[in-house]
Amino acid sequence: MPLLDLLSFPFIQRTIIAGLILGLLLACLGVYVTLKKMAFFGDGIAHASLAGIAIAILAGVTPMPVALVWSLLVAIFIFYLEKKVKLSTDSLIGILFTASMALGVVLMRFTPGYQPDLVSYLFGSILSIQTFDLWLTAGISAAILLWLFISFRSLTFLSLSEESAAVAGIKVSLHTLLLYISLALATVLAVKMLGIVLVSALLIIPPAIGRILAHNFKQYFTFSIIVAEITILVGLFLSLQFDLPSGASIVLTGTALFCLATIFKRRTA
Fold first, then answer.
1. Domain assignments of the chain as residue spans, ordered by start
2. Which long-range contacts (CB under 8 A, 24 or more apart) does 139-145 make?
3. What is the model's pLDDT at position 117?
4. 240 against 258, higher pLDDT
5. Mean of pLDDT values over 204-223
6. What phi and psi, each to the nearest 5 degrees, are found at residue 125?
7. Residue 100 in contact with residue 74, Cβ under 8 Å?
8. pLDDT digits over 86-138, tens only?
9. How many angstroms separate the CA atoms of 102 and 216, rounded?
């Protein structure tokens, strides 16, 4: 079917709008993720959300809100343990996400029959996004993006050096907690699009390409956002045209762009 005909369907329109919103959100957060070397955080939160999804399916309610609340609690707990336990953040994330995922697997054992919702969250199914999902994504994304805009200077300072940020009077603990919460919410929102297995890729690949191409911090942000949006649009187009899994198509598109950016940088260096 021609692309213009596909665009007339409401579920395709919801897919594109949700994809563009999430691309913008994840690209902006991804800049701070790469600067603070927190790539494992997004992956951990995505896997931890399985328990929330399983609880929702077992209870017969919509999975997304429960997964958001569960991941929010995990993020806050990680922040709390960082202050109380002499373990690295990666170690804490590894313990909590494996425990949470294990809980999800156990709960799935009590869920009878085939569960298409669970499969879509594991591997991504952006084409199944409903109007409620779109409004939820738009609302939470708008709140996070507003906070990122207001806190741009503080977050940038914090990402480059926590010690210098503290000396400059920035509330390091508060901004770190809010960053963890924002990452948790954004990651779970994107799980519907990319799946638990692949979601962290969109936090990492566009900012990685932006860092390769950029000459200053403003370009870093700009290139990251542009690459994220191109990745999602091209990935969705390939998914629709060739009947491919949407999440995998988006991630492979981003990986191809990363390879092209690396080659371009080497030739122009």
1. 3-197
2. 140/68, 140/185, 140/186, 140/189, 141/21, 141/22, 141/24, 141/25, 141/186, 141/189, 144/25, 144/29, 144/182, 144/185, 144/186, 145/24, 145/25, 145/28
3. 61
4. 258
5. 91
6. -160, 70
7. yes
8. 777 788 888 888 898 888 888 877 776 656 566 667 666 666 778 888 899 99
9. 42
222 burial via Cβ count (<10 Å: 0-12, 13-18, 19+) = middle
What mean pLDDT comes out for the span 39-52? 84
* Per-residue tokens: 166: 């503290």
**Ordered alpha helix ranges (H), the chain:** 3-6, 10-35, 39-59, 63-84, 89-109, 116-123, 131-150, 152-160, 162-167, 172-194, 200-213, 217-242, 246-268
Region class of 241: left (phi > 0), else alpha (psi between -120 and 50), else beta? alpha
Buried b (16+ CB within 10 A) or exposed e, 178-198: bbbbbbbbbbbbbbbbbbbbb
Is 112 in a helix, a strand, or coil?
Answer: coil
Would you call 170 helix, strand, or coil by DSSP? Answer: coil
For residue 4, the model assigns a pLDDT of 66
* 224 or 201: which leads in pLDDT: 224
Other CB atoms within 10 Å distance of the CB of residue 15: 24
pLDDT score at 229: 95
Which CATH architecture is the domain 3-197 placed in?
Orthogonal Bundle (1.10)
90 vs 227: which has the higher pLDDT: 227
